[in-house]
From TrEMBL:
Keywords: DNA-binding, Transcription, Transcription regulation
GO molecular function, one term: DNA binding
Domain named HTH marR-type: residues: 6-148
Highest classification ranks of the organism: Bacteria, Bacillati, Bacillota, Clostridia, Eubacteriales
InterPro entries tied to this protein: HTH_MarR-typ (IPR000835), WH-like_DNA-bd_sf (IPR036388), WH_DNA-bd_sf (IPR036390)
Species the sequence originates in: Caproiciproducens galactitolivorans
Protein name: Multiple antibiotic resistance protein MarR
First and last residue of the signal peptide: none
């Protein structure tokens, strides 16, 4: 790939991330988990897919300091979304997991997101929907090749049963 094509690729990638965030993610987070900050939402979404994580693992995954992660987790514990549990194999290690309340809130959030996205996707043709599905599958496949092992979670696909 020559440098002009490479620069075009980078520009396209950098421009699509804010568009996806603005169009899909931010409205969903604000509407469904409005009592949480975006960083708190990100933490519980990671915990949803990974089940149990240490503070170190979670702070590494989110690329923030352990001190900041502690503040985030303290707030989520206070709000009832997560809890600290002792590791069964190493009692000195504290793990973080979603509470039942946290899981229920995520399920509600996901359903609200589906309804919001359903309304957005009614505006586009079936051909555009098919193209979007194909494009997202292609992007996921390429990202896996670039970053093997990264993002390998217990549940990489949201549990959604909806026709758009």
């Amino acid at each position: 790939m020559d440098s002009a094509n490479f620069n075009e690729l980078i520009a396209a990638l950098l421009s699509i991330v804010p568009q996806i965030n603005e169009t899909f993610l931010r409205p969903i987070e604000q509407k469904s988990l409005g009592n949480l900050t975006p960083t708190q939402v990100r933490a519980i979404r990671i915990l949803e897919s990974r089940e149990l994580l240490s503070m170190t693992q979670l702070s590494t995954e989110m690329d923030i300091s352990k001190q900041h992660m502690t503040k985030i987790i303290n707030a989520l514990v206070e709000k009832g979304y997560v809890e600290r549990v002792e590791d069964k194999t190493n009692r000195r290690l504290v793990l973080i997991q979603l509470t039942k309340f946290g899981r229920v809130q995520i399920q509600k959030s996901t359903q609200q997101a589906v309804e919001l996205l359903r309304l957005q996707f009614k505006q586009i043709s079936e051909e555009d929907k098919a193209a979007l599905i194909e494009a997202t599958q292609t992007i996921k496949s390429i990202v896996k090749k670039i970053m093997p092992g990264k993002g390998q979670t217990r549940n990489t696909e949201p549990r959604v049963e909806a026709k758009i």
